[in-house]
């Protein structure tokens, strides 16, 4: 049996999220799909995996309610997810601002202007003032980001509002700002928050870094690796020997260039993910903090 994983989101008003939750749960159970689906009054955000025919049926049925929803297909199976979780939440992306997000049938209201990967390059070529603003967690940017991007000091998306209101980024408010994130969903929520706080000219990239990387590889304005939320921890847009490839990350122990994140071996006490070279990982499989603590013991 060939397995597939589906990634998708859609912002649209949902009058009865609980009814949609029950429908989606029954649909997935009936098809033998597992994964994680979040539903709010603003839309749906999901990752499910299973048999390819079951995935096709799921897409067809889900499109009946979520018109125009786009699915990203990748290889995998139900085995990649231990179970099925379908939940109603205040937000499908947790920025801690459910009351501020406004959506209609066309999606998010008042968000940044969408740019194709080509339009990103055109905008930057036309205007030297353009600023890239990283819409991810700071850790993700350690191994890859857009050239000269501003990386806010955030551990989770919950920290963005505090950062935006801190005054640190006020110098960007009258400049063209391109916000970016992995697949685009976080910027759908981040860009209206920015505009509501006085950022005048805000853009976002259609399909996020993923689509930009598919288009330009390492030959565009992207530098380094892309952090991903699965066991691989990172992915590249070109071959490893690509002369345009830039390795941005450094081993926390010996400073050697690396793009490999590891979970600190002091689990479950420590939940840190940290960058390490292979050699140090073998002799010292801990994050910098835990390694320092062990050394003073
Ligand atoms: Zn090292
Ligand atoms: Zn640790």
From TrEMBL:
Keywords: Oxidoreductase, tRNA processing
Record has Oxidoreductase as a keyword: yes
Residue span, Rhodanese domain: 126-221
Pfam families listed in its UniProt record: Rhodanese, Rhodanese_C, UPF0176_N
InterPro entries: Rhodanese-like_dom, Rhodanese-like_dom_sf, Rhodanese_C, TrhO, TRHO_N
Job description of the protein: Catalyzes oxygen-dependent 5-hydroxyuridine (ho5U) modification at position 34 in tRNAs.
UniProt-recorded name of the protein: tRNA uridine(34) hydroxylase
Record gene name: trhO
